Amino acid sequence: EKDGHDWFMRKEIFEQPRAVADSLLGRMGADGLLQLDEVRLSDDELRDIDKIIIIACGTSFYAGMVAKYAIEHWCRIPVEVELASEFRYRDPILNYSTLVVAISQSGETADTLQAIRHARVQKSKVLAICNTNGSTIPRESDAVIYTHAGPEIGVASTKGFLTQLVACYLLALYLAQVKGTRYGDEINQIVRQLEAMPAHIQDVLDRADEVYALAREYVDATSVLFLGRHAGYPVALEGALKLKELAYLHAEGFAAGELKHGPIALVDEGLPVLCVVPSRGRDQLHDKMVSGIQEVRARGARTLCLAEVGDTAIEPYADVLFRLPKVPTLLQPLVATVPLQLFACELATAKGHDVDQPRNLAKSVTVE
Ligand code: M6R
Fold first, then answer.
1. Beta strands 51-56 and 79-83, pairing class
2. Which of 21, 40, 324, 327 has the highest local Cβ count within 10 Å?
3. Cα–Cα distance, 15 to 13 (Å, whole number)
4. How far is 209 from 143, CA to CA, in rounded Å?
5. CB burial class (10 A; 0-12, 13-18, 19+) of residue 31?
6. Is the reported ipTM for this assembly greater than 0.90?
7. pTM above 0.90, yes or no
8. What is the C-alpha separation between 233 and 340, in angstroms, rounded?
């Protein structure tokens, strides 16, 4: 049942190329237009949306953070992302032109469910991104995009997260198509880039041993920091969450630009810092990240960097370098998260922990 793997989690990490491919399947219609059959909202209703609020918990919340970057960039609609447990109790401003997007792998998370109930009372439309057919959250939503990860058994979300990212990108592109903020050619080109992702994820998985060897060096670590920027920031948060959950290790993710506002004081000799280096685009994001890495290294950190192939600028500042396939920054979470999953899984295994059933955690959190 675990396909020869020691843990369901490891099996699920290795299923990701298939899960991502399945979540993309059949979305392009014969007319060349993106189709999301499960969206039971009319184009007019979608065109009227002037604000999106994404609500979720844990790993699903990090998928929501990536969605914000994609939707705002491609659709020019303002997006807020909020933890479901906080949203409900702050008296949020909602109305009929607000789209609330609830992201939940299980579809049963109590905080997220309460949040969508509140949104519907305020007359907002609710769209669920969910992996579990017939679960409560999609049943109580106006529209659903199902991810096709297949059952996720490991308590730590892996393929659930990657397929949520796919659904978020598709939603963003769909809204761009309906609102006319992007041309069809451009949308098609991004869909092609998404279709290339399963092969890129496989490329990372084929080099899992590199990550495992690194992870085993850190069985005695007491703290690990994760740095990212832009779409790499939620990846850093996700990498840290995986380490907390599985290895019971203090881990924190930071937006690299925030370092000098406090966290850099944590850095001392030998502290492992995992750095998600953005793709080299036309903006300054990549260079700013490299200078952040330079700063932590100058203070003694051991920099473990994930950077795209051909990125030579990072080489002088990386103590360890794991190469990522060359993909656009917005899509990079689909490849950059994978080594971090492998890292946490292997480190927890080396510590002798139960990776599938970490202490104190449940797969589906059905109490508020
Ligand atoms: O089923 P959901 O996506 O609503 O679950 C949300 C969180 O409980 C979940 O992502 C949790 O953080 C995972 N254990 C992360 O690995």
1. parallel
2. 324
3. 5
4. 41
5. exposed
6. yes
7. yes
8. 13
> CB count, 10 Å around CB of 178?
20
Contacts for 116 with CB less than 8 Å, ≥ 6 apart:
55, 100, 102, 126, 128, 137, 140, 141
CA distance 90 to 116: 14
d(CA 140, CA 30): 31
Name the residue among 168, 288, 312 with its Cα closest to residue 230. 288
Selection from 149, 69, 48 nearest residue 106 by Cα: 149
326-363 burial code (b ≥16 CB/10 A, e <16): ebebbbbbbbbbbbbbbbbbbbbbebebebbbbeeeeb
Does the C-beta of 124 come closer than 6 Å to ligand 1?
no
Cα(185)–Cα(179) distance, rounded to whole angstroms? 15
| Residues 125-184: tens digit of each pLDDT | 999 999 999 999 999 999 999 999 999 998 899 999 999 999 999 999 999 999 999 988
CA–CA separation, 133 and 327 (whole Å): 31
3-state secondary structure of 349: helix
Tally the residues of the chain.
Answer: 368
Q: How many helices (H) and strands (E) does the chain have?
A: 14, 10
Side chain identity at residue 77, one-letter code? I
Contact 335, 200 (CB under 8 A): yes
Tell me if 355 CB under 6 Å of ligand 1: no
The sheet with strand 98-104 has its strands ordered as: 79-83, 51-56, 98-104, 125-130, 143-146
Task: Assess whether the C-beta atom of 356 lies below 6 angstroms from ligand 1.
Answer: no
Nearest CA to ligand 1 atom 9: 58
Mean pLDDT of the chain: 94
Mutate which of 12, 105, 242, 357 for ligand 1 pocket (most atoms within 8 A of beta carbon): 105
